[in-house]
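User: Fold this one for me? It's RAE2 geranylgeranyltransferase.
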Amino acid sequence: RNYYGGNWASFSFSGLLSWIKENQEKTDINGECEDWRKLILENEEVISLSKKVKTIQHVEDFCFVDQDSAEDIEEAGALPKLPVFGASGAEGVAQESEKECPPVECALQEAEISEPEKATGTEPASATEGKDTEVTSENESSQSTALGESTLELGKTEAAPSEISVQEPKKITYSQIVREGRRFNIDLVSKLLYSRGLLIDLLIKSNVSRYAEFKNATRILAFRGGKVEQVPCSRADVFNSRQLTMVEKRMLMKFLTFCLDYEQHPDEYQDYENSSFAQFLSTRKLTPSLQHFILHSIAMVSETDCSTLEGLQATKKFLQCLGRYGNTPFLFPLYGQGEIPQCFCRLCAVFGGIYCLRHSVQCLVVDKESGRCKAIVDHFGQRISANYFIVEDSYLSESVCTNVSYRQISRAVLITDQSVLNTDSEQQVSILTVPPVDLGKAAVCVIELCSSTMTCMKDTYLVHLTCPSTKTAREDLEPVVQKLFNLNTEKETENEELEKPRVLWAVYFNMRDSSGINKNSYDGLPSNVYVCSGPDAALGNDCAVKQAEAIFQEMFPAEEFCPPPPNPEDIIYDEDEIAAEETGLSNSPETKPESSSEESSSRGSTTVQKEDKEK
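Assistant: Here's what I get for RAE2 geranylgeranyltransferase.
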């Protein structure tokens, strides 16, 4: 691929159009070297890798606004064939360049243009609304940054529960969307970060959090009776809510308090352990509206498939995450979810990791006697040896995956002209769960992002819809889109549709869910080849973090997973030691005993080359 992150990537609008075209055409990966088999020895065999990307299917995109002439759009875009970077608005999109550049030159030019924009805070004013908050790990709030505390940048925007009348949304044309395409950072996978989830803990521990900024999800919404309404979650929200009666407020607070320490009261739920969570809620003194809020907007679980214990665990997790960084349990990374893999890439590169984009691999080379993988052969006919090989599931050929059964995720991404629930603040990050119409089907998770998340242009919203697949993505998700949004063009819009937000542009696609597959399901893989899955359908990122740590521990059982990097003042450079020896200031046994490698590592010191420092 020519972008970071695989199916976790984010794209600008033009980059997404290129990605759509690639997946609709289903082109093969080019094998430039035909004689690579000459590199294989007699005592070796090969495991060929897939030449097609099969993780994305049924890609359909639609435009619901006025389109200018093709010449105008082309001129506004002036796009190279493919993006170079996957996220951060830093793709190889030379929109203002009259002359088309080679891919690498385009990437460098765009990085120079867009990266300073990110760093110097030239975002729209809405991006800096609210008070910035330092986010630290537990029990560190009183420590100074000099003591190694990890921080997350967080832009908070207060949610306003009351609905108000709003002005008519501005008219947006397709050429405007293309012209402002670099304002969009559109995620292939839609997720949020639980404030006490494994990924937040890992970002803080590894100090990768310094490479990213985050914004609070400001609202939890519910869809009931054909209307969208805000769900009170925290104690303050419950008591300030005008939707609930005083009796309902007491009922809700009593139940939520029980859920926080339900393990201490087994007598209250053990008779319903074999029942669904929905059935358990019906036995509590809760009104139908409260049951709906708890099931779909707090626990966010299935009405039929979720057991009582699973529902209580999900509710407790939600409640434990409240209040750590804001009034909801969730954070969203500015510039999109695709920033997260790139943040880890940056830290890895600082310590010598090398990334090769547009560099395909022909096969794995396996030693017949030991059964271990020895090397790979790339598309240049170059043989690269290593001790461990980590491969994403999509690169494995059908012959290796004959016994593997995959699930699918249905995804939709919409660009809209206004929010699903208008309030006095336009800068809202909202999560909404739409219950299934038919029992047995999955609920649809809707995440709506405003322009201050740096994922869409001003006066628009970016809406992600996700659910486990039963049919094609469009068949699964279009009924929900029709409930929430106006899909008609401006001329066709009827009076009753005027209140709904208008969809300006939409794309539907199915994505393979390869999570939860045992390594033994793959045929003939050597023991030192490890398989990573693509994104799963869950809202959080726990699956990916657990998988990464499990693979790391298999390879290096004695090492710590993602340890904190050393502070700059603790790093000892080779050139400093050489200079000290030349001037006669080198450490002697009398003045400073030589410490063991274990002692050195315990102090957090490391040795890096001068070239790494310059990088």
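One thing worth pointing out: The longest strand covers residues 503-513.
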